[in-house]
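Example 307, ligand zinc ion.
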Amino acid sequence: MREGGCTGEVCPRCVGHHLEAVRDAMASGRRIEFVLPAFPTKSPNPAKVLGPLPDLAEELALRFLNSLCERIGAIYPPGAAILICSDGRVFNDLLGVSDENVTGYVRALDDMITRMGATHLEQFTLDKVYRGAGHTDMRTMLSTGHAPEIEELREEVRAGGAPLAMYRGITRFMLEDLSGPHYTGTRSALQRECRRLAYRVIQRSRAWGDLLGQLFPAAIRLSIHPQPCGTEKIGILLADTPDAWLTPWHSVAVESGGRFTLMKRADAERAGAEPVHVAGRPSHYVLAPDAARPAPAPHEPGHRPRA
Ligand SMILES: [Zn+2]
């Protein structure tokens, strides 16, 4: 977490939960294995992303994760590996994303990992757990076997702290993703719906996490969400971005002055960024360095008309 806790420092409590798993692996000379539930599917909102397939935003994140394993390998020769537990199939029906788009995203991500030669990364999906089952049945089996009750989650969120931050973050993303031009209802109805859906997304994520814990008990758990000190997951930031909640699948990669950041597509375009195509497909944006600060959205306070 960027505020409070152990920002920039690592205290004994931070590492307490994970030290044993690392020591166990090292004692038997095994490679250190991480599990990262992430890379679900692109946001369905065209104001945030370039399309349904992974692009340079994902590629940069994968490069970072692979290089992290290489850095571990430099000081511990058996090395490390990250199992990317792509969770699109777990909750795409709640996000209004088709199963076909999830399949396309997963395949393209696999191709990307192969093409990059990212030998420390591998992808794992719900399809590999319930082989041959229908997609809806997979989600039902996962929920039946592993999901907590919604009321249990409500209590955690009411108690504040990290669960409340998570709930707010997910509600915010759902509002952005579902308030596209196709939505015709009122804002308050959409907010109610997103709060309801956020609980269901958290419920499915927990179910997925529980299943992964059973399947990979020796692995160290990573999370793309900011984590407070002393939790069972290590929070990991996939890209250099001012908003710790912004992920490659909710944004576009923007290169400016030789550095990359993530921005929502509409923000990048508003700031004057130009799209770049690679092999005939949209890949990322380039922004002149003097325009690098994201312009606020028109409805946000502090908006100034561009000259
Ligand atoms: Zn700490």
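Summary: The first strand starts at residue 32 and ends at 36.
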